Amino acid sequence: MELTNESGKLFIKQQYYRHIKMKRRDFIRITSLYSGGWILSAALPLNALAQTQLDPICFQPHPLIKLCDDGSIIIYVRKQEMGQGVSTSLPMIVAEEMEADWQSIKSEIAPFDYEKKEEYRTIASDSILKNWEPLRRAGAAAREMLMAAAAQRWSIEIKDCQAEKGKIINTLTNESVPYKELIAPASKLPVPETPPLKNYKDFRLIGKGAKRLNALEIVTGKTKFGIDVKLPGMLYALVFRSPVYGGKIKSYNAERAKKIDGVKHIVEIKEMDARLRGRNGIAVVADSFWTAQKARNVLEMIWEDGINKTVTSDGYSKKLKQVITEPPIVIIEEKGNSDEVFKSASAKLEADYEFPFLAHATIEPPNCTATYKDGNYELWGGFQIPGNVADMLPALFGVKRENIKINLTPMGGGFGRRASIDNASEAMQIAKAIEQPVKVYWTRTDDIQNDAYRPAMYHKLSASLNQDKNILSWQDRVSGTPFLQNIARINIEAIGGLVGDFYYPVENFKSSFHFLEPPIPCGAWRSVAYSHNNFAVECFVDELAANAGIDPFDYRLQLLSKANGGEIQTKLGGKLMYSPERLIAVLRKVAEEIGWHHPHPKGHHLGIACCPYLTAKSYAAHAFDISVDSKRKITIHKVVAAIDCGLVIDLDGVQSQMQGALAWGLSAALREEITLQHGRVQQSNLKNYGVLRFNEMPAVKVHIIDSKEDPGSVGEVGVPSVAPALCNAIFAATKYRIRKLPISNVGFRI
Amino acid sequence: MSLYHLTINGKTHEVNVINDMPLLWILREVLDMTGTKYGCGMGVCGACTVHINGAAVRSCQISASQCANKQITTIEGLSEDGSHPVQKAWLELNVAQCGYCQCGQIMTAAALLNANSNPTDKQIDEAMANNYCRCGTYKRIREAIHKAAVLPAH
Question: B interface mutation test: which of A84, A88, A220, A659 has the most B CBs within 10 A?
Fold first, then answer.
């Protein structure tokens, strides 16, 4: 049962049913290799595994659900796990409708299927959004088949059967039968096309905290991340990449490197295509990481650095400020006549905000393992968009799509980094050259200096005001690069929070984008453009409140009380739903919990910010309680967060994501910054890049709004409002406005 | 290349490796014990933490010769089934997100509890300050260490 089409509308593919009905005649016998051997499960066809009598007998009422007569239920997950919890939350949806016992559920990565490539795309916080309906129906269909099988067994009507915690109960006799005993008869029944879905009030799992699946493997060190893949005869590679983006090799000397014991090959790496975010370089292939690293250290490289060789952060910052005065490449939104109103107004307020390039610094550095034989490639690694590997690389390597097999692994953090496929391109180039299995590693320095960065951005906000200090016009000019790094693809996702009508309603409004080519590759970074858009808006509205002499929380509420909710048609295409009430609710919650309207201890100051993350259908807000001493040292006394993500699936998972979002947002606000000198990234490790440390993490109380709205997603939603809430608190404490991130640039620290 | 005898998780392994190869790579690439993670290779991130004679050590910063006649414990040897109190507390509190740094976090935490059976928040923060987590699980880790401190030893 496959339930989505490109427009997102649900329909049922009859063809699929025919396929399933054919398959259903036979039970599928599965060896332990299939459930336990993650590489083999992806590599071997199912029928090759039918071997012994001891193996459990299983059936698949849906491609993503497998019930076995040993009592286990495997739920395959097409979205990629990188810490955001999809390997738990998506199975919860299926298990809820199936009335399965959570203890019997196992979660596995679904082998990559090109035909379903969109479902594997794990970006933009859409896993819950896109899977909620289809997975409910899948689970419900399985439950209905099990109930029908039980009804047959007892010769009673289905209405006299009840599914509960992995068994069907005969409500006439109170007899019960576990699912595992119904596998054979259920597999002979038709798959219902429109199974009834449960009422929300009957949910047993959804909305509650579940034990994370796969946690035992993690704490015992058994989880195999991409970097842990090992193939027979595998070699290890490190690449000396152009230190300047777009640089080419002028000449190189690998003689010393080749003389080191254990060095096997030297391979030239090509950038191939700008969309890969890769760089030219030389790969050293050896019998260990350690030898490869030693050999790379003695490579003599002479580079033609190219057009970015003189770039500095200061120079790029000046350019950002220059292009913002020039005509934009696109007007994002416009209403009324903000230019005229601004010109003729007597009172005006302007502020600019600057944002640095940011790295991801996933603790598992990028890596990829590849083999090449007889024109066929096979890859192992974490890919947030495996479809891009399948769509982009065949043409570049002169093969057909079916000549590249992709094996997906869990990721040691993603945050957008693993949406880039520079790792696959490099591993394939090396594998082709040496015709031997190879794993290409990034060292930590390679990672920090060869990322696809959150673009450096610049915002210029301006407002005109009437005598009563009410806002007459508002403009938000943005310069930089959309994270997709392609001016032809400026769309809602690329522009982020500046969509539809401005979320604080203003009669005359305009936002515009002023493009500047980036000197280093850019890509998606947890919360993408919301990360800077929301900061600019939430800090500027705080400035307007201060200017009007109104409490910043009251000021926001006054504005939002005049906002119209409903569907927004964006100028760049696409529709979004906006509910000012839901935004108000999260703001109210954090204000209440931080004690906004109550007296607070001497020296304590509060800051607040909110974020309608409309593309994920979720809303978040943060409030900080801080003190700042005369040397700009900040003490964070308390942080509260609130989120309305609609109906909650995994309660503890939402808590985790909001806690993690605080760490992510705070880390960036405090110290994170990629700077350039002679076109080269200056940072090289977690410490000098400034990643938040254990002892710096403040406690946070997360409040989840009880909601029956359709479930939204959570992964990125809690990030944007962290930094503006902190900076607004810094203003409350010091009257100093942060206009440039990170705050360490002007001496603030925790 | 030299021959070394390493005692890891109670078993002696004979490895023939280049002299200065860090223990991290011996574990991962030679012995296929991949629970010990590479995160930086500079002794900064803590992902590669193991125990040597019960104390937390960055395995990327120590070579085979420095491990002679010492007891090395990796995450695979802390317990096979997750029954060590620290692992149990991690499971109980759903600490892990992506999980990549967690083996190092667990090893550092277990060494802390070996030395101090009931650490304060401040002592935990000090002991864990050089273990990075990019998913932001720090506060759950602290809570889990307190929990592990009151769980019975396995």
Answer: A220
Tell me the C-alpha distance between A604 and A595, whole Å: 11
Which residue from B34, B75, B79 is facing A228, i.e. has the nearest CB? B34
The beta-carbon neighbor of A697 closest among B29, B38, B139 is B139
Tell me what pLDDT residue A24 has: 33
Count Cβ neighbours within 10 Å for each residue of A294-331 and write b for 16 or more, e otherwise.
bbbebbebebebeebbebbbeebeebbeebbeeebeee
Contacts of A525 (CB under 8 A, 6+ apart): A358, A360, A415, A416, A417, A453, A454, A483, A531
Interface of A with B in 660-699 (CB under 8 A): 660-664, 685-687, 691-695, 697, 699
Interface predicted TM-score (ipTM): 0.98
| DSSP H or E run through A731 | helix A722-734
In the numeric block, which tokens belong to residue A499?
């969509």
What's the rounded Cα separation, in Å, for the pair A664 and A528? 12
The reply to whether residue B41 touches residue A81, judged by beta carbons under 8 angstroms, is no
Mutate which of A39, A213, A363 to disrupt the B interface (most B C-beta within 10 Å)?
A363
Give CA angle at A420 (A525, A279), nearest 5°: 115
Polymer length in residues for chain B: 154
Which positions in chain B touch A213 (Cβ < 8 Å)?
A: none
Other beta carbons within 10 Å of A174:
7
Q: What is the pLDDT of residue A501?
A: 59
- Chain position carrying tokens 């667990």: B106
| Residue A111 and residue A70 in contact, taking contact as beta carbons nearer than 8 Å | no
CA distance A260 to A298: 10
Yes or no: say if A35 and A58 are a contact pair by the CB < 8 Å rule.
Answer: no
Helical (H) or strand (E) element with A658: helix A651-670
Query: What are A493-524's pLDDT values in tens digits?
Result: 566 556 555 799 899 999 999 999 999 999 99
Tens digits of residue pLDDT in A450-497: 999 999 999 999 999 998 888 999 999 999 998 876 665 666 656 655
| pLDDT the model gives residue A490 | 64
Residue (of A636, A748, A613, A629) closest to A701 by Cα position? A636
Q: Residue A580, preceding bond cis, omega within 30 degrees?
A: no
- As given in the structure block, the two tokens for residue A430 are 């090396």
Strands B2-8 and B71-73, sheet pairing: parallel
pTM score of the predicted model: 0.93
Note the pLDDT tens digit of each residue in A52-109: 456 788 989 999 999 999 999 999 999 999 999 999 999 999 999 999 999 999 999 9
Rounded to an integer, what distance in angstroms lies between the CA atom of residue A55 and that of residue A659? Answer: 42
CA distance A303 to A248: 6
